[in-house]
Amino acid sequence: MKKYLLILFILILPLRNYASYVLIPMDAESQTDHLKAYGITYWVLNKQQKVKWLLNYRGGSFLMPDTEELKKECKIRGVAFEVISDAKTQNILEEIESPSQNMDAVILEKAPKIAVYTPNGNAPWDDAVTMVLTYAEIPYETVYDKKVLDNELLLYDWLHLHHEDFTGQYGKFYRAYRAAPWYIEEKRNAEQLAQELGFAKVSEEKSAVATKIRDYVIGGGFMFAMCSATDSFDIALSAEGVDICEPMFDGDASEAGYQNKINYNNTFAFTDFTLERNPMVYEFSSIDMTTKRRIPKETDYFSLMNYSAKWDPIPTMLCQNHTALVKGFMGQTTSFNRDEIKPTVLVMGENKTNGEARYIHGIKGKGFFTFYGGHDPEDYQHKVGDPKTELSLHPNSPGYRLILNNVLFPAARKKKQKT
Questions:
Q1: Which residues contact 150 (CB under 8 A, 6 or more apart)?
Q2: How confident is the model at residue 62 (pLDDT cuts 50, 70, 90)?
Q3: Which residue from 299, 300, 347, 353 could staple onto 357, CB 3.0 to 4.6 Å apart?
Q4: CATH code of the domain covering residue 71
Q5: Shared-domain flag, residues 78 and 135
Q6: Do 217 and 369 form a contact (C-beta atoms < 8 A)?
Q7: Region for 41 from its dihedrals, namely left if φ exceeds 0, alpha if ψ lies in -120 to 50, beta otherwise
Q8: Same domain? 75 vs 136
């Protein structure tokens, strides 16, 4: 019997040593396509398999069980991977668990259902998020005002706001583009939609949409917004019931003294801002730093904050990257005035020399929101009519990685934040 057990042990031992996992490294040196690596992770989650996100380990690597199907998919998509033994996996996890290491392993449990708030007819390359979701092969569905007002956001775990104007001022494009056919058509379509939904003005309809989105977040949803969808959303919430639009936008004069009627308690991220009254100025308020920037393109970078992975896993997840410096980029709303951000909101990315925040995160009710300034992380100063960005030329983009961190965030088994 002892001899039999010894032989059995000898046979089992190699199986234990050679049982394997797939590590998808996310450091700068090893990964060939960081963006598609997120797509692989989503693909595994979509098969009801769990993934470990190794925070601060080799740029925020992913660990998952080894299968032939997975390795084949990685090769097809051009994603670098490493097959590691069970013993090596245990060594990595033990290193991560060590109190001396600023690392953690977060379990991703299910593929989040993703909605992108965008008008019908917009091509995917009109928006950085739809562009990177398409490139990474992460599925999403689109929603717009009617679906939002019909409470269909409850079907989704994650919502992205297209670079929208929730104030009803049509992006403040009036001065430069009021005679352009696309502007006239978009204004007409917005007015028609507002009427169909039972509103007298586009501004009133957009305010109702912003309120529904607010309720979605308070109820436990995750909202991610970029460019003008960030400040215009907060402005719409703060101006609920107040007419801040001039006649060329809604047909009648704005409300007298409306600045004094702004309710900052209603906003997610911003406070004490001053609205831009002049319809000829391409700006919503003092929140945005675009016209105040004095940074040469060659030195325009922002730095990511370094959080404790074990104590603050949420901002650590959202800041995972293979570099601490991210190349700057502009948009209608490029960055946020530090002095007008609520103290309860985390500034996760900033340009200290200009006193601006680029990447912020907060909690609202049971849900979360992230605001990311700028239009396209790989198009420094995107203009109307510019060609789309070819992400195949930027597969390792740090700026786009921040978007995809947010996409995966709802998949994480939540740990209580300790600070």
A1: none
A2: very high
A3: 347
A4: 3.30.70.790
A5: no
A6: yes
A7: alpha
A8: no
